[in-house]
Design a protein that fits this description.
Order of helices and strands of chain A: HEEEEEEEHHHEHHEEHH
Number of helices of chain A: 8
Distance between the termini of chain A: 14 Å
Shape of chain A: globular
Largest sheet of chain A: 4 strands, antiparallel
Oligomer: homodimer
Helix content of chain A: 40-55%
Radius of gyration of chain A: 18 Å
Structural class of chain A: alpha+beta
Strand order of the largest sheet of chain A: 2-6-4-5
DNA sequence: CGTTTTCTTGACAGGGATCAACACTAGTGG
DNA sequence: CCACTAGTGTTGATCCCTGTCAAGAAAACG
């Protein structure tokens, strides 16, 4: 995708908004506002259960378009909440479709986004189903590093990781207490350090190995390339 | 979607194929064959882990189009395996796009399919992250009942559920042994019966309540309706 | 029928949950 | 500037849900 095409997508018009930490950006049944494009901050789609538990479904970082092609009316089934103070832009479905029609590279970028988002959710399923607590954390930290890098954010010497241990628990299907203890294990193993909401990967190779993190599913090599062979 | 439109989608041309139980229908890097449309049998997309564990990502029932808009070349990241003897048809991406262009209802049906598939994966995440073993099983059985019904397959008086307890474990992130014991609990509670691969829901209301199954995420009411307001 | 797969059961171990304090940090207001 | 408060991180003790290992039944299959 060329700079120009990227500019088209990132420059999509739409009403800007912001949400404080803990507030919802979007809720089911509150009318279709369009597709949120995260400008700053971390947010997530989540589900609340009867017993008060929360499960975070997907994490959105700055630059992420929440659902590239949006939803049909009446399909916004899960709330979108701000995990930190977040600013965003609501772009209309039509604007996105228009951009896709204008440039083949744009359209391809949107498909790419959709498929990578799907893969991220699938890796999430693998983590929740078959990985231990420490492995889930390790996998997440590896994924975040790559995603931030792909979004053009700096990750040299670590990155800011604003999630609380409770957030991590809700994302990875664990209790805050157990997140705490697993983090200590990771620190003790010399794989990471995490203090003041700043995460540093101290031994990337070993961390990736223990978490079985294979970056292929993020298709980073295609994220900024020209149109492929289709 | 009218009968005619549905016929267009279900009647999509493509090379037919079949796979015995346990064999793969599609593997990463084996060239792009198009989009598999399951005709008969149950299949799944899965991932294998280093220690031999398997995690099933999504389950496909007869009539399911595996990824409504297909993937981009080089994006088939997970194998598609047959859980029972399966027959399928490989339809080309172009054919699907052509059908979508021909009829607005067709296009809408494809979007619907994409969004419902996404919701199913998200509920899967919730189950794996926050539900107990018995709840996961209960939720799955409720979901399968609805999906089979939506696909036009009979569910009156129960339905055939060909998955082994090992398959259920790989789907729900559990051990076969624990699946076995949790099933016995569900039977003892009078919620279900499962024998000879036939499942009967004995108390739907209570089963849905204990699993917190809310059918809304499947959007059944829109699956066979005409074009909405978009 | 014999063979393989699947289901069932028992004993035991362990990862993660739960409950409950306490420490630390940061923001607030007097 | 210093309590005061609320949120977050840390730790300990204990419980239990689920995993592991192993062996038999039962069913499916050729």
């Amino acid at each position: 995708m060329s700079q120009a095409d990227e500019a088209i997508l990132l420059g999509l018009r739409g009403s800007s908004g912001q949400a404080d930490k803990g507030r919802d950006i979007t809720r089911p049944h509150d009318g279709s506002h369009g597709i949120p494009l995260i400008v700053k901050g971390w947010s997530c789609r989540y589900q609340l259960l009867g017993n008060g538990k929360r499960q975070i479904l997907t994490l959105y970082l700055p630059g992420d378009l929440c659902e590239p092609f949006g939803t049909l009316p009446g399909f916004a089934d899960y709330p979108l909440g701000a995990l930190t103070f977040t600013t965003y832009r609501m772009v209309s479905r039509q604007a996105v479709f228009h951009a896709a029609g204008e440039s083949a590279a744009c359209e391809r970028a949107l498909w790419w986004d959709l498929l990578v988002a799907t893969n991220i959710e699938r890796e999430h399923i693998v983590s929740l189903g078959r990985r231990s607590a420490a492995e889930r954390l390790g996998h997440l930290f590896c994924e975040l590093e790559m995603r931030l890098e792909m979004a053009g954010l700096p990750t040299h010497g670590g990155y800011d990781m604003p999630l609380t241990q409770a957030d991590l628990g809700d994302l990875l299907g664990l209790t805050p207490v157990h997140v705490n203890r697993s983090l200590q294990d990771l620190r003790a193993s010399g794989l990471i350090s995490l203090e003041n909401r700043r995460l540093t990967i101290r031994n990337r190779a070993e961390l990736r190995a223990m978490a079985e993190f294979d970056p292929a599913y993020l298709h980073a090599e295609q994220s900024r390339r020209g149109a492929g062979g289709w």
